[in-house]
Description:
Layout: H1 2-18, H2 21-30, E1 43-48, H3 57-74, E2 78-82, E3 92-94, E4 113-117, H4 125-128, E5 136-140, H5 146-153, H6 159-166, E6 167-169, H7 171-184, E7 190-194, H8 213-233, E8 238-242, H9 245-251, E9 257-259, H10 275-289, E10 294-298, H11 307-314, E11 319-323
Parallel strand pairs: 1-2, 1-5, 4-5, 7-8, 7-10, 8-9, 10-11
Antiparallel strand pairs: 3-6
Helix pairs in contact: 3-5, 6-11, 7-10, 10-11
Amino acid sequence: MWQSLQGLKKSVTLFFNAYGLREIQMLLKYHKLSFRESVKKPMLISMVDDRRQGKGLTDRFKGIISVYALAKAVGVPYRCIYNHPFNLDDFLEPNEYNWLPKADELSETVSGVRFKLLRKQHTIKRLLKVLPLKRQVRVYANLDYLDEINIKYHKQYEWGTLFKELFKPTKALSDRLQTHLTQLGDSGYIACVFRFQNLLGDFKEYHVKPLPKPQQQQLIEQNIGMLRKIAERSTVPVLVTSDSAAFLSEAKKLTNIYTIPGKVVHVDNVSGAEKEVYMKSFVDFLMLSRARRIYSIGTDIMYRTDFPLYAAKINAIPFERIKI
């Protein structure tokens, strides 16, 4: 029954997106009704706000990098508006390219703005229909279209290179990273990532239900067993990240293990939290990106997360999935 309802919801969403009905609805709802010719410069704008569900941090970055790559490939300005459930520039600031909107450069009229909703669109073709660009196009995207863009425009963009063109850590985030890097030492470290969602009952995520207590314990022991093997043969410290505090508590009991304190949250399920709560996700992501190698570990029932995969892409470090 649940799968049938989900299938119906997906079909309705795809129908509205295919014919641009929801995009028109958003345009009329959020922008001034004026048909005077817009004098604002056309541009592509990545949107992460409370008007549309954005999924997790990794998915948001997938969309941002894709839209930036397209803007770069066709030679148009790019901006990013990311203000929910936090302001992105509290953690990451512009690096080589200034993606923050400048004062008075954004159009707010129906004649100067278009929306493009690419969620659940497995190709970027719908966005390409706005080219050549005549208006400011606000794009909601959470998939990685980089390969498609590279093929179409004969580019060789790399995800990590584009990420570093756009972003560098703020001082607050940079200081936090340096603290952990100093504690880990000069020899470097490897990283192991475990993604349980709500299977262990301590991480709210969509409709995932906790396992019964005996099965929770069995799942913890399976993953701890694999982690122990890796830690025992590693000549450098092992950074362990997870969405489960229960698992991290057990992992810390092993030797040669390093964990990062703080509460883990899903950015699509928590809003209005203190900045420190969201900081943990950025610290984990960028600490993973500086490891020698990343392992994503789990069983069949655990989520195949892309969080460590895209962290590895930032500095092109080796990444491996280990299935227990």
